[in-house]
Amino acid sequence: MANNEQARGAWGSKLGFIVAAAGSAIGLGNIWRFPYVAGQNGGAAFVFIYIFFIVIIGLPVMIAEFSMGRHTQKNPVGAFKAIAPRTPWPWVGGLAVFTCIAALSFYCVIAGFAVGYFVKILLGDFSQIITGAQCEGVFSQFASNPFISIGVLLLFIVLTALIVIRGISAGIERWSKILMPVLFLLLIVLAIRSITLPGATRGLVFYLKPDFSKVTGTTVAQALGQALFSLGVGVGIMITYGSYLSKKDNLFTSAGSVCFFDTLIAFLAGLIMFPALFAMGIDPAKGAGLIFVVLPSIFTKMPGGMVFGAGIFLLISLAALTSTISILEVPVAYFVDEKKWSRKKAVLWMTLAVVVLGVPSAISLGAARWFSRLPFLNMGFLDMMNIMFGNYSLTIGAFFVAVFVSYRWGLKSVMAEIEQEGNVFTFKRIWAVLIRFVCPLAIAVILGYIIITGTYFG
Fold it and tell me: CA triplet 197, 200, 202: central angle to 5 degrees?
């Protein structure tokens, strides 16, 4: 055990693990996507349904993934292989590893845009812009410049690699302990500023007072999809992070803490966005362009708007970084465990792979016509990658994890892992019902929904 931990690394403390795992879940899904999806789906009613799915779907699957990781002390491929050798199950782990490489390639592009906008605001580029059309033109010009779009991709993946290359305790855990408090402090300051704006009350009512008469099948499907997308289950991150855990750690309370902080961050992001939007008379259902197109148009109208804007884009950048380091760790752990590579070699080669795969996404927003509109698909390369690896792959992975721990590994074996070192799993009967019946069915429904309707949640 000791030799294995020395070779792979281990968390220095339970707090460090919770902070890092919460950081892995907290990312663009919380700060960028959650507010506009909630805005498109009725506000408070969506939030209530989203929290419900976090508890009955996200938490049970996360507990299962932590259990697999700690039991095997392996990456996703190694975990499936150790529990179910000489079966096709390790292919599910392989899908998770490749999904992380692919997802990181377009995730870093969007995160890089946030860094770029943080710099643009500091340079005063939005000090005279007052209309949404002008902001849209600025974003189009920014994203269609190949030197900028590729440059911010390189910047973000290099920042990520520099942290991951230092290992679990000295790299990921140490930086998570720095980034997460800064992130939380920024959220609090920005939320206070937003809710104290004149006219912010209407935004608070929209966000906190549910009107369940507006709930549709789409609302429910989007809430479940957002829960999966936000927590990052199904892509091997929690299996990998769980593999560095001590047998003394309580997996139920650890998973509960991660889900709590992930939901809290998303909730605070809504407290920032909705009061500010309503105070400025902006429709909260503006969609994916909310951050890069809509928000900059209100900064000049808002007291202290430039400081507020810089804070938002710094917040998005930090949240994205806490996620990208966890995503990169998955393929790195695979090559360290299965191929016996050094961490340095694994990080360098995976970074190169992400850059090569990320360039088409970076230039697909206007810099290269062919990548902007792929033949036969009627969408750009970045959108295609998001649908394939941020929707289908993630959902399929979560479904097979639930099925695997329920019917292949066995619930008794999972519970024995959770209750090691005297830990008590108080809600194990409820968890057993959820992971065996509710989770697979609900995830299968969301997968069928996105296939049939073409409505995606990433």
Answer: 165
The CA-atom distances, in angstroms, between 419 and each of 71, 252, 285, 312, 415 are 12, 9, 45, 41, 6
Distance CA 7, CA 177 (A): 23
Mean pLDDT of the chain: 90
**CA dist., res. 234 & res. 402, Å (int):** 9
- Dihedral (C-alpha) 42, 44, 47, 48: value to the nearest 10 degrees? -120
Structural contact between residues 449 and 221, judged by C-beta atoms closer than 8 angstroms: yes
Quote the longest CA-to-CA distance of the chain. 64
Q: Does domain 2-453 have CATH number 1.20.1740?
A: yes
pLDDT at 1 over 80: no
pLDDT in tens, 120-167: 999 988 888 767 778 888 888 999 999 999 999 999 999 999 999 999
Cβ partners under 8 Å of residue 205, min gap 6? none
Query: How many of the other CB atoms lie within 10 Å of CB of 370?
Result: 12
> Could you tell me where the beta strands, DSSP code E, fall in 197-330?
none
Euclidean distance between the first and the last CA atom of the chain, given in angstroms as a whole number: 39
Name the region of 100 (left: φ>0; alpha: ψ -120 to 50; beta: rest): alpha
